[in-house]
UniProtKB/TrEMBL annotation:
PANTHER family reported for this sequence: FERROCHELATASE, FERROCHELATASE, MITOCHONDRIAL
Source organism of the structure: Serinicoccus chungangensis
GO CC annotation, single: cytoplasm
Protein name: Coproporphyrin III ferrochelatase
UniProt keyword Oxidoreductase, yes or no: no
Keywords: Cytoplasm, Heme biosynthesis, Iron, Lyase, Metal-binding, Porphyrin biosynthesis
SUPFAM superfamilies hit by this protein: Chelatase
Residues that, per the record, bind Fe-coproporphyrin III: S61, Y130
Length: 371
């Protein structure tokens, strides 16, 4: 690359927004579900049930449209900072696939790419599985004689762009409910459930494990403490889980959000602010598991439930993603760069350590790591 082309995102030539993917038409639902669950031991009954969730919404998941909007927001933020770099879109489980994005980049002569993922926490499903799918797309291109080098930004659960945006969204909602009703709402944080075995092994192999649940517990507690300080009163909170999908014999992280709303009702809680901090956009798990199921549970219980939005295209979040890209580029250039965090001071490495968040079924090549 010419010296004159150098910019703050050097050495990267394109950003690839890397996401989960979702169906966009009824006939895409089953192929998508089979791809997601291939070899992962999810019972057929569960697949049929989840297919119904998608079909209930016309067979179209909102996730790709949300990611297209996020790409537009990232492009606008890059332009505001006079950073010129293309932003491509690549999914793990639906079109446009990661390999499509890499091929498109390669055709334009761009071979150093930066993956910005829509997944904030650490565990196999939210980190290594992305890295495996990046590697398999690279292998697909290599078979066509095309090489692309791909790095990714760090897991950003405690990057201020993500965590402070969540804190502001929850804090504003709690204040609004408190002012409207005079009752301090109970904060119920929610994230995707995992098999206990996946949580137990999340994080670097030489560490204590359970990094996924510990990250969520730490962010929930920090947001609750800040909300309490702003409201000037005590605020209670819990972390709950949604979207469990394994067989009943397999233990998954609990409590389920619906079960927990029932427990809270028995304890006399009347008002809940439900905060999906585990997710980055209001995709199918949010609109079905929370806005359909959990909303029904709350209605049955006669509880006041306010589901707050995910970070989506929130400006603070989008600015944070650009900051994370700049941080990763500076690291790639070998520079010392500030790595802001909130809460806590622990920075997730952008290059994962060997054995981090392992695949408990099969060993597969994974990109963006030192193994
Ligand atoms: C941690 C985590 C995230 C957050 C991080 C991230 O965002 O990546 C996430 C996101 C998502 N999960 C999604 C969809 C699905 N996840 C499934 C299944 C599973 N998810 C798991 C974990 C996670 N999933 C796990 C451990 C399984 C069991 C199978 C296995 O061990 O791998 C299944 C199979 C059917 C079922 O639900 O059983 C589907 C359809 C969509 C798309 C939504 C849309 O279309 O709008 C999104 C964003
Ligand atoms: Fe999932």
């Amino acid at each position: 690359m010419e010296e004159t082309e150098e910019h703050d995102l050097f050495p990267y030539q394109a950003i690839v927004l890397t996401s989960f993917g979702g169906p966009e038409a009824p006939e895409e639902v089953m192929p998508f579900l089979r791809r997601v669950t291939g070899g992962r031991g999810i019972p057929d009954e569960r697949l049929e049930e989840v297919a119904e969730h998608y079909l209930h919404f016309g067979g179209r998941s909102p996730i790709n449209d949300q990611n297209r909007a996020l790409i537009e927001a990232i492009r606008a933020e890059l332009a505001r900072r006079e950073l010129t770099i293309p932003v491509l879109f690549g999914n793990r489980n639906s079109r446009p696939f990661l390999a499509d994005a890499f091929r498109e980049a390669h055709a334009e002569g761009m071979t150093r790419l930066l993956s910005v993922t829509t997944s904030a926490y650490s565990c196999y499903s939210s980190c290594r599985q992305y890295r495996e799918d990046i590697a398999s797309a690279q292998i697909e291109l290599r078979e066509e004689g095309k090489e692309v080098h791909v790095d990714k930004i760090r897991q950003y659960w405690n990057h201020p762009g993500f965590s402070r945006a969540n804190a502001r969204i929850v804090g504003e909602a709690a204040r609004q409910r408190y002012e409207a009703t005079g009752v301090v709402p109970h904060l119920v944080f929610v994230t995707h459930s995992l098999p206990n075995s996946m949580d137990d092994t999340s994080g670097p192999g030489d560490d204590e494990g359970n990094l996924y649940s510990r990250q969520h517990l730490e962010l929930s507690a920090a947001i609750a403490a800040e909300t309490a300080a702003t409201l000037g009163t005590e605020v209670e909170h819990d972390l709950t889980y949604c979207s469990r999908s394994g067989p009943p014999s397999q233990p998954w992280l609990e409590p389920d959000v619906n079960d927990h709303l029932r427990v809270l009702k028995e304890r006399g809680v009347e008002s809940v602010v439900l905060a999906p901090i585990g997710f980055v956009s209001d995709h199918m798990e949010v609109v079905f598991d929370l806005d359909t199921e959990a909303a029904e549970t709350a209605e049955e219980l006669g509880m006041d439930l306010l589901r707050v939005p995910t970070v989506g295209t929130d400006t603070e979040f989008v600015m944070g993603l650009v900051d994370l890209a700049l941080e990763r580029a500076a690291q790639a250039r070998g520079e010392d760069v500030a790595t802001p965090t909130w809460p806590g001071g622990e920075v997730r490495p952008a290059i994962c350590r060997p054995g981090c968040c392992p695949n408990l079924r099969v060993a597969k090549p994974a990109a963006c790591g030192s193994d």
